[in-house]
Structures are given as structure tokens and as C-alpha cells.
Amino acid sequence: MYVDAREDFTMDPDDLEKKITAKGKVVIVQHTFGLPAQMDRLFFLAKKHGLKVIEDCAQSLGSSWQGQKLGTFGDLAILSFGSDKGVSCARGGGVVTNDPELAERVRACQRRLPPTSRLKIFQHLTHYPVFAFGKAYYHLGVGKWILWLAKKLGIINRIIYQPEKHGQQVSFYPTQLPNALAAILLRQLSEFEETIKHRVWVVARYRQLLKSNARVHLPPEQAGTVWLRFPLLVAEPRRLHSLAKRQGIILGDWYQTVIAPGDIDPGETGYTIGQCPEAERLAARSINLPTDRALGEREITRIVSTIKKYANQTDQ
């Protein structure tokens, strides 16, 4: 059962309460973009109805709710170290729990996993130089073809494979995280506090430069949030995306569909149109801005100038 979103993209406790049934066992709470969900109300409802709580912290590593780190509220939390996450080694993830029995069951699953093949390790490692080159020339069209060709030839890894879009498991995942990727991850973790500070600064600049623009709806400010991406609501996100692309700026399209990615087999998801109307409304208007460490004042100014240009065109 899918639970609708609040206007800030996080789970709506009121809708959750309406949809809890006697068959319910677990509630999975996603902290979208890094913004904490309403954990006090959600946790209360889960305990009231005897539900286990799994926190999806794939986008929220480092964020807190009322002074407590996300991932420490529920029975279990999942992390992602994919190519577009707060700390990244191109693939992989982690599990957090304070339940000794659950921890041992997770370790047992991990021990049964096969090692990652050398081909996949090679693809993960080559992701970094290929993606950097492709991103630099993406606005010219060359970068897009470089990335497409690299995936087609198997030089770099895909984020999601075609069978997975149809609800099928690929034969080469899951596997144990290889040491080569773990070394990359450990280096990023050692610098994570600096990364957090930079993301907070980037978002503060976005807010300062966009706060007076009536055509752009900013997300709420909430203490403890480490934004992986900074979401905006605009009338025509695809037009803004195209305008930015022509300026050599890549904005995010998370989430222009309620169930992502948009080309998956809808029959495998169990979602029906109208099930989550607020999420559908948000998806039709959302676009998001980068917050990574590569951004400086110059890049932020260019992004904001493009958004203001879009807003002025909308006024006309």
C-alpha cells in the first residue's frame, strides 16, 4: 500500500493512519531529498498498530529530527552509496539497526552473498572518469552520447537494469561490496562533515537568492536537514529543465513520476493513478537543484540566474 506525501515530499501521517489495515506488518518511511519525515507522529502510529519501522535513509545521511540522527528511530534503516548519493562509491549500501537479532540476520545474509565480479568492479571504477568527462560536455550533446555509449558497451555500470524495471532480479546482484569501492567510501566518510557544511551553505545561498521569487516555491526550512538535492515546485519543470540544459546546467528530475524511474512496468508496482493525489501533484511540478561539493558561488549564481530567467518568461 502506498501512502501519500505531504507538501514537503515526506510521508503524510494522516494518510498513513487511513491506510493501516490488520494485514500491515511494516511501514517504510522515506526521508525524501534529506528532509526528515514527521517521525514523532509516524513512529507513534507504527507503535500503536504494532508495525515495524524501516527508515529509508538513501537520501538523508547526516540529517536529524529533533536532534536525533535519522536511521536511529526505527527497527532498521537502509543507506545507499550509489552514484548520486551523499557519500558514493558508485554502488552498494548499508543497513543500520540496534536490534542484535536483526543485526545477526543481516550479517548472515551478507555472508551468503557472492563476491562482486571483476567486470563489475571495473565498471564501477571507470564510472568516475567517464561520468566526469560526460558531464563536462553534456550541454553540447557530446557528453550525453559518451555516457550512452559507455553504458551500451559495458564500460560503466547502469543504475538500474532492464529486468529490474519489470520486477525481476538480475543475476549479478546482490553481491558483497568489494574492497576497491569500500576504500572510496571510507575516504568520503572521513570528509563527510565538511561535505555536510558545504551542502548547508549551498542551500542557504539558494534560499537567499530565490526567496523573493513568487514563481518558485521553496521547501520548508527545518533544522537538522542535510539536503541531497534542493527541490523546487514550478509550473513547468520540463521547460525549466530544457532551458537550464541549453545553458550547460543539469537540473534533477526527481521525481517527475510518483513511481521512479518513469519507464518501469507500472503493473509490477501495484500503484494506480489517484492512489496518492498529493504525490502526483508534486511530481507534475517538481525539479531539484544540486548541492554537491563541486558547487561554488559562480555555479550557484548561474543556476539561480537561469531559474529567474524562466520565471520572467513565465510572467510574460
Number of extended strands: 8
Q: What is the H level of CATH, i.e. the homologous superfamily of the largest domain?
A: Aspartate Aminotransferase, domain 1
CATH class of the largest domain: Alpha Beta
- Global structural class: alpha/beta
pLDDT averaged residue by residue: 92
**What is the general shape?**
globular
Q: Which stretches of 5+ consecutive residues score pLDDT under 50?
A: none
Largest sheet: 4 strands, mixed
**DSSP summary: helix tally:** 10
Helical residues, percent: 40-55%
Structure description:
By secondary structure, this protein is of the alpha/beta class. It has three domains: 13-80; 118-189, no CATH class; 191-315, Alpha-Beta Complex (Aspartate Aminotransferase, domain 1). The chain is 40% helix and 10% strand. It has ten helices and eight strands. It has helices spanning 13-19, 39-48, 100-112, 118-136, 142-152, 179-190, 192-210, 237-246, 277-283, 297-315, and strands at residues 26-30, 52-56, 64-65, 68-69, 76-80, 93-96, 229-233, 286-290. A four-stranded mixed sheet has the order 1-2-5-6. Strands 3-4 form a two-stranded antiparallel ribbon. Strand 1, helix 2 and strand 2 (52-56) form a beta-alpha-beta unit. Helix 4 runs antiparallel to helix 5, helix 7 (192-210) runs parallel beside helix 10 and helix 8 packs across helix 10 (297-315). The longest helix has 19 residues, at 118-136. It starts with 12 loop residues before the first helix and ends with a helix.
